[in-house]
Amino acid sequence: MQIAVIINHQQFTLEVQPDDFLVDTLRAQGLYSVRRGCETSSCGLCTVWLNGKPTLSCSLLSFRAAGQHITTIEGLRSEAEEFAQFMAAEGADQCGYCSPGFIMTVLAMKRELVNPTEADMIHYLTGNLCRCTGYQGQLRAVKKYLGV
Amino acid sequence: MKYVGKALPKTDALAISTGKPVYTEDLAPDNALVVKILRSPHAFARIKSIDTTKAHSVKGVECILTYKDVPQVRFTLAGQSYPEPSPYDRLILDQVVRYVGDEVAIIAAADERAANAAMKRIKVEYEVFEPVLEFEQAIGHASVVHPEADLSCNFDIGMDKARNICSSHILAEGDVEQELKKCDIVIEETYYTQAQAPAMMETFRAFTYLDHTGRLVVVSSTQVPFHIKRQVARALELPASQVRVIKPRIGGGFGGKQTGSGEVFTGLVTLKTGKPAFYIYNRSETFSCTTSRHAMRLKVRLGADKEGVIRALDIENLSDTGAYGEHAPTTFAVCGDKTLPLYNKTRAVRYHGHAVYTNKMPAGALRGYGATQGTFALESTVNKLAAKLGMDPAELRLKNLIKEGETSLAFHGNVLGSSALDRCIEKGKELIGWQDKYPRKQLPNGNIRAVGMAVTMQGSGIAGIDTASASVRLNEDGSYCLLIGSTDMGTGSDTMLAQVAAEVLAMPPEKIIVHAADTDISPYDPGSYASSTAYVTGMAVLRAAEDLKKQIITQGARMLEVAPAQVQFDGQQLTAPSGREISIKKLAELLVVGTGNCQLVGNATYGSPISPPPFVAGFVEIELDPGTGKFEIINYVAVVDCGTVLNANLAKIQVEGGIAQGIGMAMYEEVRYDDRGRMKTNNFMQYKIPCRKDVGKITVAFEESYEPTGPFGAKSIGEVVINTPSPAIAQAIYNAVGVSIASLPITPEKVFMGMKGAMIHAKQSDETSG
């Protein structure tokens, strides 16, 4: 089946199977920042935005994205790099495998939450697992980025 | 120092954070065959028949391989220096399957759909055997996991395969029974540590292809490219020179990727078909078909005098290596080697026991590598001694711990070159507020706050065995290339090693191009494991840079027409006493272009006869609800002696990450099976790694020592940081509610049942006495 989607502000017509998940469809388009880390919607690696909201692309059937706006980190390059500098300054990138999904959630949080407390931030970001950092450096980076 | 110790960002930080295509999957060729594995549904069985006819008829299927199609050479997946101590006990595919998930058939197809469809059409008939599922019943079990005659070992590892004993070990100094008899106090306890999954974010994956000369190229997310090269060569019966292994960026390893995984499967497919082949382990396979930490049962006897001086230590260990013996003898040895030397007032020590085969997923390497298990057992026992003596556990440590310049019975005759562990303990007490908080405080809401502590050591590389080489090349434009074979799995070791070279060459690290790792290009390195990279590879890099610097000065002196000793080199300019100078850039250019020249390359190889231990003093404050047993971490303080800190930020994150992984092991994580040997914890819903709400606050501090044999005084940091949470948290629980937990993980349920048990016990003794 064919679907029309807008990926990173660009219109695409894609051929997908009914059981294709969005993560695979996006990777097939060369959007390699989007990764599958589990099969149970638990880890957050595959986080993209669907109409501006963080969404797990591993559990969204591709055809359900038809007609909608998808954003990956490739579409937020300069903003992502700005935050990534804060991560780098803390050494909090480590293996980097969870970083794109994490950054997508951080950038969404920045838009959604007004003056979040530390607990608000931790709650918002909980769905993004990381095995390297113990989360402390990520939190330092987020707080410095948000200037709190 | 100008560059060493600085909190420089990782050289790959921006690329990896923003999702650039630098990992294995991103680099796989589009035309690679998709490999899938049919796996055993039985814990122990023999394949009676296997019919692949229908599977072959699926469109797009290129090749299906069974045990009939593989080389009959047993090998080990353990990534260890040759000759590997792990037994050669597996085939790529075997007629006997030894755990649920063991490989039965390899399917390669043009796409995933075809591979999955073909897998469903393979018919297998099994003769099912009684599996060995309880490791405490493995020795002498009626079922023998490895009866095969062609299993072999490079060393006498004490294998007795007829009794399911994979390896045996004994280390004994003095007469431990005699010394225990002489002691005023003897503490005895049996501890159980669970299998833990590495759960790195990037699952296992590898692809292979044949290059233009017909050699097999393996691109793998691995910590051990050179070991994978040798392993693949053995398993596929190729000369090692016909195999090239490339490691791109790695999405975490934690020791898990010190064991080979899919390389032999894709390699075989590529050899059979001539085509590129790619295999990704999904999360479920990563949990249930790779390796985990060895589960252990540790029986500890500790003897001390009335003053609290520890005089005798005896640990009997039983380690569960699962279906294959990857890392079985070595994790077993490390468990004793990296714990017993801590307490050196002993007059006798003994450490002994077996690693046993069972019909479960194999165990393997995981951060801490036996020391983590041993630390839980020994430190919990030392904490018990403190409780029995009514002594502050921190004071008890200071009284008994090995100090700089001292040796220890289980230290193989070595002398401790550096230690700031006493300062780590003092600093940790201060940071947690030990004086005020020990042992517990009742809160107005009924909850209890309590503190606990533990100390630990690890090693830095494998003494006398693991040896790394490094090359530093002066490029024609005056920049440098640093070639290493160690594997930055996210730790930032590439950056940290560039800092080491930069310090020697007085050149900013960003001017040093780091290349790692490709077995055709990189100098030999065992890979990143055993806490070796900063210390072993670090020393190789330091010496290679010094070698190059010497050559630069010699060549500069020649051009300046003075003696080398007269040349000043500040990294940019070489200056003669007359003031005449030549830039490094010009020197480089002159050395590369034209006749009679020679491009300068500094080389060094380093292997250490010792493995200097880094130390951690870990302190934890918990808050516990006595109504439910539920508890959480308020603050975890880790004070670390890793010698000289080479990169302040990266070292700190290593500590924070290791403590969090240790908290996971202490409180949440456990690989579990059902009564048929099927893993119940094969996903993140069932196997819970800490999320950011679960770790509490982690406070890190460093107390530097100076290790005379390390690069700029550095020791390791990667593993030692995972060891303290389990015993420290267990002690905090004890201090809170008087319940001793001797089996991990420490769940609220165990705490609650312990409290209930203690109450019943108290009630019964009341009744008896009343």
Features:
heterodimer, A: 148 residues, alpha+beta, 5-stranded mixed beta sheet, 5 strands, elongated, B: alpha+beta, Aldehyde Oxidoreductase, domain 3, Aldehyde Oxidoreductase, domain 4, 7-stranded mixed beta sheet, 19 helices, 27 strands, 23% strand
Overview of the structural elements:
The complex is a heterodimer of chains A (148) and B (770). The model of chain A has no long low-confidence stretch (mean pLDDT 97). Chain A has helices at 22-28, 77-90, 99-112, 118-125, 136-146; strands at 2-7, 10-15, 47-50, 53-56, 69-71. Chain A is α+β, with helices and mostly antiparallel strands. In chain B, the strands form six sheets. A seven-stranded mixed beta sheet of chain B has the order 3-5-1-12-9-10-11, with helices on both faces. In chain B, β26, α17 (648-667) and β27 form a beta-alpha-beta unit. The chains are: A alpha+beta (148), B alpha+beta (770). At the A-B interface, α2, α3, α4 and α5 of A face α1 and α17 of B.
Mean pLDDT of chain A: 97
Most extensive protein-chain contact, per-chain counts: A-B, 52 and 55 residues
> What distance lies between the first and last C-alpha atoms of chain A, to the nearest angstrom?
47 Å
Main-sheet strand order of chain A equals 2-1-5-3-4
Structural class estimated from helices and strands of chain A:
alpha+beta
Let me know the number of strands of chain B: 27
Net shape of chain B: globular
Residues in helices of chain B, as a percent range: 25-40%
Strand arrangement within the widest β-sheet of chain B reads 3-5-1-12-9-10-11
Number of helical regions of chain A: 5
Compute the separation of the termini of chain B in Å. 72 Å
Radius of gyration of chain B: 27 Å
Low-confidence stretches of chain B: none
Count the DSSP helices of chain B: 19
What about the largest sheet of chain A? 5 strands, mixed
